[in-house]
Amino acid sequence: MAEELYGIVSELDEEHQEAVWRLWTDVEREFGVSISKTHVPHFTYHCAKSYGASVHRLLANVAATMAPAVTASFILGVFNAPPPLFFLPLVRTADLNSIHRRLWADLGSIATGVMDRYAAERWFATVNLAPDLENDISRDLLPFLLQRDVAWSLTIDNICLLHDTGERQIIEARFRLTG
User: Which class for 1: exposed (0-12), middle (13-18), buried (19 or more C-beta within 10 A)?
Assistant: First the structure.
């Protein structure tokens, strides 16, 4: 991890949140790396250096007017950067797109230092399966991950404010989608 950032994210449903925690524990044990003490399983809609003081009220309003979204995963993705990044892409459903569009429209006036890679034309929801590994263990990690069943159906029922301190990730606020 490096610089301090904030993100508007969703945690996974309980079953799949636990599955990612178990996977991270297994990766830590198998490869001698540390993940679970610094990261939170999630996917990101929006990321910025800061959000204004009204972010909690804004997120509560969005959550009260948006319904939970159903999505799925079925493949393992790899972004070939040093070291490679392994992720679980989620199907970009109409409901997830609606949440994403609404957040981007509402956050525009209170966010500074916005990361464009989460903008609508580039965005897809991904769950990082081996975040911030300092050494390239991809040669051994790929077959390890391919043994996992990632054909999941998930219900996304929350939006959260995540604070990445540069050292660890913290969910600062969580709002249930109830619309």
Answer: middle
Closest by CA to 43, choosing from 177, 132, 160, is 160
pTM of the predicted model as reported, rounded to 2 decimal places: 0.93
- Best CATH choice for the domain 5-176 from the list 3.30.70.1060, 3.30.540.10, 1.20.120.1730, 3.90.1140.10: 3.90.1140.10
Separation between Cα atoms, residue 6 and residue 118, nearest integer Å: 13
Pairwise CA distance, residues 69 & 79, whole Å: 26
- Asked whether 46 and 104 are in contact (CB, 8 A), the reply is yes
What pLDDT, on the 0 to 100 scale, is given for residue 1?
47
Give yes or no for a contact between 12 and 156, defined as CB atoms under 8 angstroms apart: yes
Phi and psi at 35, nearest 5°, equal -130, -55
Q: How far apart are CA 154 and CA 56, in angstroms?
A: 25
The kind and range of the H/E element at 77 are strand 77-79
3-state secondary structure of 76: coil
Selection from 46, 17, 42, 39 nearest residue 168 by Cα:
39
pLDDT beneath 50: ranges in the chain: 1
